[in-house]
Amino acid sequence: MKMRIVVIGANAAGAKAASKAKRVNPEAEITLIDRGNFISYGACGIPYYVSDTVVEVKELMSTPVGVLRDQVFFRKVKGVDVITETEAVVVDWRNKKVELWTAVSGTTSFIDYDRLILATGSSPLIPPLQGSELAGIVTVKSIEDATFLKEQAVSGKRACVIGAGLIGLETVEALALCGMQVTVVEMLGQVLPGVLDDEMATLLERHIQSHGVQVMTSCRVSCFEGNGHVEKVITDQGEILADLVVLAAGVKPNVSLARNAGLEIGATGAIAVDDHLRTSVPDIYACGDCCETTHLVTGKGVYAPMGSTANKQGRVAGINAVGGDAVFNGIVGTAIVKVFDFNAGKTGLSEFAARAAGYDVEIVLSPAPDRAHFYPTAKPIVLKLVADRENGRLLGLQAVGSGAVDKRIDVAATAITFRATAEQVSHLDLGYAPPFAAAMDNLIVAADILKNKLSGHAKGVSPREVKKKMEAGEDFLLLDVRSPAEHEVMRIAGAKLVPLGVLRDTLDSLPKDKEIVTFCKISLRGYEAQKILNAAGFSNIRFMDGGILTWPYELEK
Can you tell me which residues the record assigns to a coiled coil (predicted)? Predict the structure, then answer.
């Protein structure tokens, strides 16, 4: 008798699981069920459709060669039967049956299975606020959402995006490119909370503001107002006029089907699975946004809904559902986003998350061009490396700037996955030619700085710590070793200017009885100044990580 595999949910994870199961066991009967009308589409591409970067919405539902991924495609090409506009409402795992409800016909039916794969995905978080039912309030999840947003993104109109996470910022860019006046509201104190640390987020926030977007952080929405259609967003910082409101405050896993069937729900609120993506009930697997996974740095369960993870998990679940032995070990929390002319990404743990997890961390802020500085297309990026001070193991990397951050994030993701140390990363044989990278790649430079810090050769202090010292009135000298011309353009209030080229000749003018913090544009010269002062007998010297380029506070000009 042929094995019967039923997959609930026909987007990234479910479509991948069904297709892979059929490839592994061509004799199996695979049925893919989804409550929606559209299947196997790339929701992550919706902002790019709205902005006309992607011209046709069908491109989000097509293969790389332009074939529409619909029911006919899955039946004829993949050998998978697809049932749409039908919801799985009950899983009877004792009798291996799923009860289905088809709203169009108002009928109930049942389907038997030998193995069941739950790929029920996630749903946008809808805040329970007065006025949330008003027309003109939309999420960014479905093809229907994409079509609506495209219609509403009219130049000159006003949009308010609730949530400054990945999808929120992508939508901010899309609407602004359409000519809308855009405000983004974030409940927490920075953009990309949980992705970037605050000083890195500030660099991105400044760039977003430079494109005419109003950014309101630490701002809570209390309600929406309008006469049938949204007109205002009421917040604790005042009211925002809006013709369109986009809810992008995150997603929650769709677990009601699993919970009602008695499957274990993890501490994250998503379905608990093992490394074979088996649930707590025999012959039922889960994959994608509906299930939790393991963070490879902390070893703890996390909820990290990403299209990339969903596809990889779908493959593993599909293999195992037909008798295979595939493993999904976990993730390191890699994420990346483009907002206007800036790119931002992270992998592993942020400094905040690493400290919260109990690590004694060392950090590096390292700004530099993304390729040889003399190459015409070189653009600046800032790296923030987070490591375990005890053993030099990399814990995380963040990257922000107009240059190529993706390759540094991907190399770091690999290094973190395999528990590499700064010593090991500093010796990686990465590709070099001036159009692609500097002779010493940004990530290798950051690893070398980290090695210098861990060995005691370099002593750094973060811009955040410097600001705290200034606000506390501590008696220390902030020493700017840039050129007079650079100092004239912009400077940190209260800093003393002594250009690096004359530092050796002016040592007698500097106090040996107080702490000196040196800095320059990126703190390469700041580090050189630290070594010069150390050699001259100054003992309490540190350089400011990242220099003035990563100073997230006001500057004198």
Answer: none
